[in-house]
Amino acid sequence: MPLIVEQYAGAGRVLFIGTDSTYRWRAYIGDPLFSRFWGQSIRHVARSRQRSGRSGWLEVYPARVEAGESVSLELYALDGVGKPLAAGELTGRVVSGEKAGSISLKPTAEAGYFRGTWTGSEEGEYVFQVEAEGKMITGSVRVSQAGRELLRPDVGRDTLGSLAELSRGGLLELPEIGKLSQCLQGEVRTTQRIHEDEIWDNWFTLILLVSLYCTDVLVRRISGLT
Fold this sequence. Notes:
Elements: E1 4-9, E2 12-17, H1 32-45, E3 57-61, E4 64-65, E5 70-76, E6 90-96, E7 99-107, E8 113-119, E9 124-132, E10 135-143, H2 157-166, H3 180-183, H4 203-223
Parallel strand pairs: 4-10
Antiparallel strand pairs: 1-2, 3-5, 5-8, 6-7, 6-9, 7-8, 9-10
């Protein structure tokens, strides 16, 4: 069963999250992960402030992808008299440097809205152009390599196995994760370490502090403050 599902419904984008335990992400660290996830989710489905029903717009998301990943396009177009455009399908251009291609946007159940997808196979900056209302409506996306954290996305099974052997442990495959609790059973060992150190290594300082304390007590007794 999917945990997170996204699709268009009605006049906007809908995001379904099939878990109610994201509050647990706050454990030990507070709100950074919780607030980041929900903030990005809300911004993802929310309509842009630049959108309006008085002029056309083209939104491309996400704004950055890797080669082979798809982006979604959402277009709102008007006709020559300012009404939502009623058309079977719109065709646009995809331009990157001297290269150019085409893309089709299909109408939705709501008048004036068109949606489509596009997949970039090469790195570069791509601009989408769709002609409507007698003018060109544009949007862009950047196709680039993954960040440093995704350069080696594999789990490194062989390396983990070698570390397990060196540490006299073992490597559990994903279907064997239920055996983890049995592997953690063992004897309890208690080790006692004693470390001694001198509190006072300067007798002059000790005598001075004791003298000040005794003088303070004596003055309080004579003054009747005790």
